[in-house]
Design goal:
Oligomer: single chain
Strand order of the largest sheet: 7-6-5-8-10-9
Largest sheet: 6 strands, mixed
CATH topology of the largest domain: Hypothetical protein af1432
Shape: elongated
CATH superfamily of the largest domain: Hypothetical protein af1432
Number of strands: 13
Radius of gyration: 26 Å
Structural class: alpha/beta
């Protein structure tokens, strides 16, 4: 946990307090892969303590995220529901690449990269994130399923580790890390660049090195360096000691002593594969990155991070390009959907700017399923959006957007549909409302030529009058009107209104809204 004071006039933030509790959430049942009752209990206790401390510091906003352990556990969603029920804390589940992006934001808030490429590594309990960036937009984000807890639990059975297990683990790490490190080398044209390390395992290695050299730990650790040779020496020291000896001789805390060898080996093999000569420590990582992300989403950010404020829009456009979406059609549908949404806000719905952003993203991407096949393309759109690794969104938000796009045609949302059923009640309500708006907008661009320039609506229960302004005078928009009559049923049943379209002839052309202003 980190508690910060936001200083919007700078803008920046000051760290007021930090708290860390190792709960080993990643210690899962070997047979089922589920989070164990003991691990969940430890996590809940720690969360309660963090919430108590945050109240003592009078925190006004609390943000929480879950990463690898919860992502992969079959009962991960059930655990998050229990957290909400017992603590009142709503936890956002984020993807591996989103975790990497937030780690990068955290590093940028604490270090200046001077427009020079750096590799960032964060070794967690269940995964290791590798990032490439120069202070601008990240050039590479990856999350690999190798972590200190995961490897210790699944691959180390001897104490101290046997030579055979040690060599097997090295070979396994080289295999798992070969793909992301190869991608990084390709992007760097095999040049070597500085490496930055964050989080607990790397911090512990820096402290251990200081202790073994007989010098007091440098204060602060920020900016300190370890060479690759020094990391290799630490690994060799750790591999010949058992857990009790690591605690007694090296004074490593118990929960860290059990997993530090596996974590050190991840760092050693990564540095070897990337030919990195040294690593620099950064005290800021995921926690601080979440704060930066919050500031970005609320329009409060330092100039050198301003490019990140549009990460959601750029990520949507990148996915649209990947799946060859007709962007002119997507933008036209988004314009019409947002006009309809805005004009009925406070009348038919109370949707906020976040819901508006979900509608925009779903409108841009609603037809991406054509990349796979025209048949059932709405279902393909759901899949491509859901697993397309959109940046800047939580897993729940991606699920919402994917479902909105999935219901732009054919069946309305139903509980028997797996993707829709996995959402909570509030999120299902958002999908229902926004998919109804999206259906109307899609119908009004049936020919995909921007035939309807803009729309105006007037609600007079039990009727909703929809005034449609053609782009070209004399266009009867017959196909759009026919498609509207076919697709309006879901909207009418949801809002208990009859949609009455009227083809209008404006005297002055109304300037269209820009859907990019979210």
């Amino acid at each position: 946990m980190v508690v910060v004071r936001i200083q919007p006039q700078i803008p920046a933030f000051t760290v007021m307090a930090r708290e860390k509790e190792t709960v080993r959430l990643g210690e899962r049942c070997p047979q089922t892969g589920n989070l164990t009752p003991e691990a969940m209990a430890r996590a809940l206790d720690a969360l309660q303590r963090c919430l108590t401390l945050s109240r003592i510091h009078q925190a006004e906003v609390t943000i929480a995220v879950a990463t690898s352990a919860v992502r992969e556990a079959p009962n991960g969603a059930e655990f998050l529901q229990r957290v909400a029920a017992e603590t009142g804390l709503v936890v956002d589940l984020i993807s591996g690449v989103e975790e990497a992006r937030c780690i990068y934001l955290g590093v940028l808030s604490g270090m200046e990269l001077d427009r020079k490429n750096h590799i960032v590594i964060d070794i967690g309990g269940g995964s290791t994130e590798l990032i490439l960036g120069d202070g601008g937009e990240p050039q590479y984000l990856s999350s690999t399923k190798v972590g200190a807890v995961r490897l210790t639990q699944e691959m180390i059975t001897t104490d101290p580790i046997s030579n055979a297990e040690y060599e097997w683990l090295r070979a396994y790490l080289q295999g798992m890390l070969e793909w992301p490190t190869h991608d990084l080398r390709q992007r760097l044209h095999r040049q070597t660049v500085p490496m930055i390390g964050t989080s607990g395992t790397i911090e512990a290695l820096f402290l251990l090195h200081a202790q073994m050299t007989g010098s007091p730990p440098p204060q602060p650790l920020q900016g300190q360096k370890l060479t690759r040779t020094q990391v290799q020496n630490l690994v060799q020291k750790l591999r010949y000691l058992n857990d009790q000896q690591r605690r007694e001789q090296l004074h490593i805390p118990p929960k860290r002593s059990e997993i530090i060898l596996a974590g050190a080996m991840i760092l050693q093999e990564t540095m070897n594969l990337l030919n990195c000569d040294h690593i620099i420590y950064c005290e800021r990582a995921l926690r601080e990155g979440i704060i930066v992300n919050w500031m970005l989403n609320h329009g409060l950010i330092a100039d050198h991070l301003r490019y990140q404020s549009s990460v959601r829009q750029r990520s949507v456009y990148k996915l649209a390009d990947k799946y060859r979406v007709r962007l002119d059609h997507g933008k036209q549908v988004a314009d019409l959907a947002l006009e309809f949404f805005d004009q009925t806000q406070g009348i038919l719905h109370t949707g906020d700017s976040l819901e508006r952003a979900y509608l925009w993203a779903a409108a841009i991407l609603h037809n991406c399923g054509h990349f796979i096949s025209h048949d059932a393309h709405h279902k393909h759109s759901y899949y491509l959006i859901r697993y397309g690794e959109l940046l800047g969104y939580t897993e729940n938000e991606i699920e919402i957007i994917a479902n909105i796009a999935r219901y732009h045609r054919k069946s309305s949302p139903k509980r028997k549909h797996e993707g829709y059923a996995c959402l909570d009640k509030a999120s299902r309500g958002i999908v229902e409302r926004l998919s109804a708006f999206l259906r109307i907008a899609v119908a009004l661009d049936r020919r995909q030529i921007g035939a309807i320039e803009h729309l105006e609506c007037r609600v007079e229960p039990p009727n909703l009058h929809l005034y449609l302004y053609p782009q070209e005078p004399g266009d009867d928009c017959a196909l759009e009107l026919w498609n509207l009559s076919y697709k309006k049923a879901w909207f009418e049943s949801l809002f208990n209104l009859k949609v009455n379209p009227h083809l209008a002839t404006p005297n002055v052309t109304k300037q269209k809204k820009l859907s990019g202003h979210l």
